[in-house]
Amino acid sequence: MFNSSRRHECKNGVKRRTGGGEEKGETRNSVDETVNAEGRILLNELIKRGWAIMNGYKGEGGWTYVGETGTSMIDYVIANVEAEGEIKKVEIGTETESDHLPLDVTLEGQSSIEEKKEDKVRKRKINDWTEEGIEYYHRECEGWSNKEIETEIKWETLREKIKNARKSKIKSVKKWKIGKRIWHCTKWKKKREELAKTLKKWKKGKGTREEYVEKRKNKENKNRGRGMEVYK
Fold first, then answer.
1. By CB atoms within 10 Å of each CB, which of 7, 108, 112, 151 scores lowest?
2. Is 65 within 8 Å of 74 (Cβ atoms)?
3. In what ranges is there compositional bias, type Basic and acidic residues (predicted)?
């Protein structure tokens, strides 16, 4: 029997069964109206476990796959009763590296509050291997010789000398997060941003899927060509 927190998929959206067996309707928005055998199997398994699909219930219910053959919703965020209460919203991301769009889940509660309090920028001590740092290292090592005889002591002395001879500096490092990309080429970063704009435009109904797929296909071909030039 379903308890008051368990939901299951139905033709008109999502229904919740109360402890007395009464059903309370809750709409789950989805742009994909396709119904097939695989989908029914998935829903039956979710019903058995008391799990539910969060796409369209706590956020967007849009397409998660955009390819040359068409569009569909085949990527899901699935949660049980306990996890459902911690999910604030589910959004479809705009990363364009794959035909499958990422699903970004925002959690609420103590864990998310603590994460917000963490410093976004951290201080880190690194070795200075600039031209000035190399000159400093050479000066510190010039004329030095290891006079120890025992191998273990000799290696320890050498490590200590190298450590002290290096010049170091403090550098500010931004905290890495999921979805972050480091682009060393301004040209390719710009291409990626343009493709993301095309995707957003299509999602708002102001563009076509074909336009986005074609641009993404051209970007992939150029990346392959660039890779062949580098590694051939």
1. 151
2. yes
3. 1-12, 19-31, 207-232
